[in-house]
Amino acid sequence: MDNSSVAFVPTHGPISQSIKNESRLCDSCPLVFYTSVLTRRRDDYLKDSKYFMAVALLAAKRSEDPNTQVGACIVNQENKIVGIGHNQMPNGCDGKLTWARDRTKDNKHLYVCHAELNAIMNTNGADVKGCSMYVTLFPCNECAKLIIQGGIKEVIYLSDMYEDRDEFKASKSMLELVGACIVNQENKIVGIGHNQMLNGYDDEEAEDNKHLYGEI
Ligand SMILES: [Zn+2]
């Protein structure tokens, strides 16, 4: 028997009938040897894009926000993870600030650091230029600024549940203007382009609400 192409699997493990059909018994071993199993690639392995989004989803699980949990995962051009983040209060503020959402009162929006910001800050010095960001919720306008200024070229998102809000419309406008590639889990929406955002932004359009787009 050629051991280089042989896998052995305990007989008590879950084994599909198709694998059993391809197997043959080894006379000298209590385990069953399954030939050809190791020579063929698994078809149901976790693909890169699903894996990186799964990492973002796992990061979201760390959020203490009782209403919205978001995770982000930054991946470089070698498909290596360089930063992970979730929405959380600034360092040292955990448990000391409100998670209330009512913007007319003391509320979380004044304090919370979004997942995208934290992922960018958690890179341990790695450059995010040219990277892709997997994020469970489409980035707001503030995070879009960080993404663009950091040189991240691609945003892959899972949910766009706030697409009707001005902050998210502005975010999409900025990302599209700079040619960042906005991708959902199924379809590419915009092609990859250069990353020149605030500098090249059209002032006339920005008159609508400058606070959404750039520094005032
Ligand atoms: Zn944000």
Automatic annotation (TrEMBL):
Keywords, sorted A to Z: Hydrolase, Metal-binding, Nucleotide biosynthesis, Zinc
Coiled-coil spans in chain: none
Enzyme class, spelled out: hydrolase
Biological process annotations from GO: nucleotide biosynthetic process
Stored Pfam families: dCMP_cyt_deam_1
Catalyzed reaction equations: dCMP + H2O + H(+) = dUMP + NH4(+); 5-hydroxymethyl-dCMP + H2O + H(+) = 5-hydroxymethyl-dUMP + NH4(+)
Molecular function in Gene Ontology: dCMP deaminase activity; zinc ion binding
PROSITE patterns attached to this UniProt entry: CYT_DCMP_DEAMINASES_1, CYT_DCMP_DEAMINASES_2
Statement: the UniProt record of this protein carries the keyword Hydrolase: yes
Any one of the GO CC terms: cytoplasm
Domain of life: Eukaryota
Matching InterPro entries: APOBEC/CMP_deaminase_Zn-bd, CMP_dCMP_dom, Cytidine_deaminase-like, dCMP_deaminase-rel, Deoxycytidylate_deaminase_dom
EC number(s) stated in the UniProt entry for this protein: 3.5.4.12
Annotated CMP/dCMP-type deaminase domain residues: 47-175
Cofactor(s) recorded in Swiss-Prot or TrEMBL: Zn(2+)
Family statement: Belongs to the cytidine and deoxycytidylate deaminase family.
Record PANTHER family: DEOXYCYTIDYLATE DEAMINASE (PTHR11086:SF18), DEOXYCYTIDYLATE DEAMINASE-RELATED (PTHR11086)
Summary of the function given for this chain in its UniProt record: Catalyzes the deamination of dCMP to dUMP, providing the nucleoside monophosphate substrate for the thymidylate synthase/TYMS. Also, part of a nucleotide salvage pathway that eliminates epigenetically modified 5-hydroxymethyl-dCMP (hmdCMP) in a two-step process entailing deamination to cytotoxic 5-hydroxymethyl-dUMP (hmdUMP), followed by its hydrolysis into 5-hydroxymethyluracil (hmU) and 2-deoxy-D-ribose 5-phosphate (deoxyribosephosphate). Catalyzes the first step in that pathway, the deamination of 5-hydroxymethyl-dCMP (hmdCMP).
UniProt protein name: Deoxycytidylate deaminase
